[in-house]
């Protein structure tokens, strides 16, 4: 049985999405989402905090993100967590957790108005 590592983020893009194509010809878009939240514990339990999450969106979903989103866009991202591990040039083990998007909702997307003739 597989374990579950699913996440839902509601926040704002911190930069414009970056669309790339892999050597296998698949498109992938990367962007970062800032999520404002309340820590809810300790002396500063009422203090707001910001967490930043790196998101990876593949193929058509990623292409749509690159076309319609920009820095400051509000989004809701649903996806799986993935941890990448590697050795640095100094031989140190490094790791990074990113979100592999299964759904990206454009929360402040406005359709272009058609002009009546």
Automatic annotation (TrEMBL):
Keyword Amino-acid biosynthesis attached: no
Annotated GO CC locations: nucleoid
GO biological process annotation, one example: DNA replication
GO molecular function: single-stranded DNA binding
Keywords from the named record: DNA-binding
Keyword Kinase: no
Self-association state and partner proteins as the record states: Homotetramer.
Alphabetized PANTHER family for the sequence: SINGLE-STRANDED DNA-BINDING PROTEIN
HAMAP family from the UniProt entry: SSB
Name of the featured protein: Single-stranded DNA-binding protein
């Amino acid at each position: 049985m597989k374990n579950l590592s699913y996440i839902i983020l509601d926040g704002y893009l911190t930069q414009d999405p970056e669309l790339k194509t892999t050597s296998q010809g698949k498109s992938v878009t990367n962007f970062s989402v800032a999520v404002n939240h309340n820590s809810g514990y300790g002396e500063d339990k009422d203090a707001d905090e910001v967490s930043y999450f790196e998101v990876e969106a593949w193929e058509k979903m990623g292409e749509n993100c690159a076309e319609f989103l920009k820095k400051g866009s509000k989004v809701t991202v649903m996806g799986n967590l993935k941890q990448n591990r590697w050795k640095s040039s100094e031989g140190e083990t490094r790791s990074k957790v990113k979100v592999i998007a299964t759904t990206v909702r454009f929360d402040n997307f406005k359709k272009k108005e058609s002009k009546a003739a």
